[in-house]
Amino acid sequence: MEFLSKPNLLKNIDKLLEQSGIIGEEENRMMLFVIASGYKMPYLLHALVQGTSGEGKSHLLNSIAQCMPQEDVMNTTRITKKSLYHYQDKELTNKLILIQDFDGLDEEAQFAFREMQSAKFLTSSTVSKDQFGNVRGKLKQVNCHFASLTATTKAEVYYDNMSRSVVIGVDESLEQTLRIVKQQNQKIAGLIDTDKEQQAKELLRNSIRVLKSYIVVNPYADKIMLPLEAKMLRRLNSQFQNFVSQITILHQYQRKTDSKGRLIATKEDILKAVDVFFSAIMIKVDELDGSTRQFFEKMKSYVRKQPKGTTHRFTAREIRQEMNISKSTNFKYFTMLQELEYIQAVEGSVNRGFKYLITHWDDIEKLRTKIKNELTQQLAEL
């Protein structure tokens, strides 16, 4: 309680997340922590972490989960299509569920998981025998109340799942890779105090344990309008309001309650929510998913540096070597960018290979600045 009562709570949590071993990913780690911390609160949230294979999705999820009370964490690598229907009534209540590889779930398992997220229960009609041996129909219901963190390499394939989740793109930059390699080497060399890592995790776990469930009243909820450019705006707005409420709940030892015992959100909670949640807003605004956006920005930067500038024609091999990625990953990005008409094959053949041209030079940073300024203006008027 003492930790939760101190000023600058989110900054202090972020320091503990770094101390626990999560290097970089400053925006993502705080967003995931807030989402995960709400697993037994009224404002449930779900995160879908997207990135290419080997870029640290599972490591990030596991690191956040280790900062939660371990008795409430369900860490799964595989879910069969019928298993979710066979849990006992309260086994999926007040849990944090991790799915390491959402790509491994078949269509029926995905459907069941989506229903759990939306309806908070699963119902199935089964056959059983009564005490006299007669075959009868039986309705079985599994009640659910959980937050979830899932990982995927192909977020765009799961449109229905994306709409129910806060989509997060991992940092695939060279700088982040170097930070991770440095940390790995320091740990092997014995230069990192693992006792301090464990202490940070225990403090965060105990902080979550002492949080009480509250209904939150946000007097500023009708004062903030998310950008109309965002896809699935209705659900995004609901997720944002739930995110604000969860930040208020984390600050419950510093917030007032009304006559009905409800926590009252403050301007500070809104400001912090916008700051932390902003990258999730941009992913829903951007036509490209997080990994493809990072790839395309690197591609644009490379092309601009060539003698012919924006008219430079490039091959897939040229880009693959520049970015030091696999042929299959490179092919996936090229296919996506061609389908969305960001690049076009302008010469060559299947046998000789193609040369490509960037045909859509969007300015995501300009759009980001515009949306940030609009939100900042709304916040200033609160």
From TrEMBL:
InterPro entries: P-loop_NTPase. It comes from the Bacteria. This is DUF3987 domain-containing protein. It comes from Chryseobacterium joostei.
